[in-house]
Specification:
Order of helices and strands: HHHHEHHHHHHHHHHHHHHEHHHHHHH
Strand content: under 5%
Structural class: mainly alpha
Shape: elongated
Radius of gyration: 33 Å
Number of helices: 25
Largest sheet: 2 strands, antiparallel
Distance between the termini: 17 Å
Number of strands: 2
Helix content: 55-70%
């Protein structure tokens, strides 16, 4: 009788009111998300309802509102953030033995023109000086580093070697002509002999004028580059202990040349040897507030702390009893690493395909994440449970990231120019560049938007076709209440008539 007494005006009012309410909720949710970066309904459910139900939020945000962050940077220093600086990849591959081999197999170019152009500028900066015209071989190599055609560069290097033993010519051939790492190592050893001879000669003359100082600076760069690449050849050929010794000796001999970031090569080699005590010692020296951070520093520190608890970590047990001190330290280290570069976990967890790392990287960008994961994925797999701990905790960091981006939590604000630089460094033909921070819309906003749209459509249809929609509504409600009517009929047939009348009256 109740359904039969409902008029079309009732359905119009009902659908219109529900559409209005859901629209207001949608507007409020969207405004709250734009201002605070999270859903109001989700925040209330996580912060207030979940504790009542006995749950524990393992990724609760840190409420420390100190004006100084973990890097020792104050709020005032955060405002003056430099533009995106592209760094040379300390673990870059060999063009001839590795990059070109990929091109031969797949037919794809792993390096972009912008990346190779940056390398050409680096070579001219490190391997040339103003006095090269005084020596015929160096004059040829000065032109060779400016050549765009690889074959022209290789031909010029051979021409320079016909005149004399030229260290930079051997470097070019080892990098671009050698097709195997063993061949590249042989050429670098020849370059080392020539480079040491030039270095000793310029070292005795460096105080005789600015021209000799420039030559000595160039010869120093050449010698450091050769020794570093020889250590990398040893690492790639499996002689890891020899590579570690060469890197340590190089860092002791030239402690001020931090531009090559040799400590990152050392960290990777020590992890391969599973010498975690020495890894911790290197981190203690280079994970300093006065030095620029990197994904290698942050994620290696997180790996060491995760290693202490990852083999016995269980998210179910942690939600019941809470996190221990060691587990909390590991989770905080992972949050710190993810906030510095949030692209890395998807590569470590193999949620995104790896490609060959570029010769240059952008710190906190997708290019740095690729370069790190390409060499360090095996080290995370070797530590039992480390990837499981990362998988359980890394997404919680996104609730801690300050919003909007002008604020910084543990580090300086995330530069907005990273996407543009990464698109120039990474091949867009077969790789989709990651964009950060890309906060996805919460489920409640999407649900409210769908509900608002659905009820608005129902209101419009009910207003246009009240009779037809009334019939549909009655049919739907009768179908919905059919099981209840069946139960009521069964109860009426079982109970005495007097008791049934009392129940219906109630």
């Amino acid at each position: 009788m109740f359904l039969n007494t409902l008029t079309p005006k009732f359905y119009v009012a009902l659908t219109g009111t529900s559409s209005l309410i859901s629209g207001l909720i949608l507007i409020f949710e969207w405004w709250y998300f734009r201002k605070y970066g999270t859903s109001f309904i989700e925040q209330v459910s996580v912060s207030h309802l979940r504790p009542l139900l006995g749950g524990v939020d393992t990724a609760a945000p840190n409420n420390n509102n100190s004006s100084t962050n973990s890097n020792g940077e104050t709020d005032s220093s955060r405002q003056s953030v430099s533009e995106c600086k592209v760094w040379r990849n300390p673990l870059n591959l060999f063009r001839g033995a590795e990059y070109n081999r990929y091109t031969w197999v797949t037919g794809r170019e792993p390096l972009t023109y912008y990346d190779m152009n940056l390398s050409a500028q680096d070579h001219q900066t490190f391997f040339t000086c103003d006095s090269d015209h005084l020596r015929p071989a160096d004059a040829i190599m000065q032109k060779a580093w400016r050549e765009r055609n690889p074959q022209a560069r290789i031909s010029a290097a051979h021409e320079a070697l016909e005149l004399e033993d030229c260290a930079t010519a051997y470097i070019l051939l080892a990098e671009e002509e050698a097709t195997t790492i063993m061949e590249a190592e042989r050429l670098f050893k020849q370059a080392l002999k020539a480079g040491e001879l030039c270095y000793r000669r310029s070292q005795t003359l460096q105080h005789h004028g600015t021209q000799y100082e420039a030559q000595h600076r160039r010869d120093t760069n050449v010698l450091v580059y050769i020794k570093r690449r020889l250590a990398m050849c040893s690492r790639k050929l499996g002689r890891t202990r020899e590579a570690v010794k060469m890197m340590r000796d190089l860092m002791k001999e030239f402690p001020l040349l931090s531009m090559f970031n040799i400590h990152e090569n050392l960290l990777e080699s020590l992890l391969e040897l599973q010498n975690y005590a020495d890894v911790q010692a290197v981190l203690a020296k280079y994970d300093d507030i006065s030095l620029p951070k990197s994904a290698t520093i942050c994620y290696t520190a997180a790996l060491l702390k995760a290693r202490a608890v990852s083999d016995k970590f269980s998210p179910e047990a942690a939600s019941r009893r809470g996190l221990s001190t060691a587990e909390m330290n590991a989770v905080e280290a992972i949050h710190r690493a993810v906030e510095f570069n949030p692209h890395v976990p998807k590569y470590l967890l193999e949620m995104k395909s790896l490609i060959l790392p570029p010769e240059h990287i952008l710190k906190r960008g997708d290019s740095e994440a690729i370069a790190y994961a390409f060499f360090h994925l095996q080290h995370w797999k070797r530590v039992e449970g480390a990837l499981n701990l990362l998988h359980c905790t890394w997404e919680g960091t996104f609730r801690m990231i300050p919003y909007p981006l002008e604020k910084g939590h543990l580090f300086y604000p995330y530069p907005i120019c990273t996407e543009t630089a990464d698109r120039e460094l990474l091949p867009t033909v077969f790789h989709e560049v990651s964009v950060y921070p890309k906060k996805e819309l919460p489920f409640f906003i999407l649900f409210t938007a769908g509900l608002c749209s659905f009820t608005a459509m129902l209101a419009l249809l009910t207003h246009q076709f009240p009779e037809l929609m009334g019939v549909f509504a009655k049919a739907f409600l009768s179908t919905l209440f059919a099981p209840l009517n069946f139960i009521m009929e069964k109860v009426e047939s079982i109970l005495p008539s007097s008791l049934w009348h009392q129940l219906t009256r109630i």
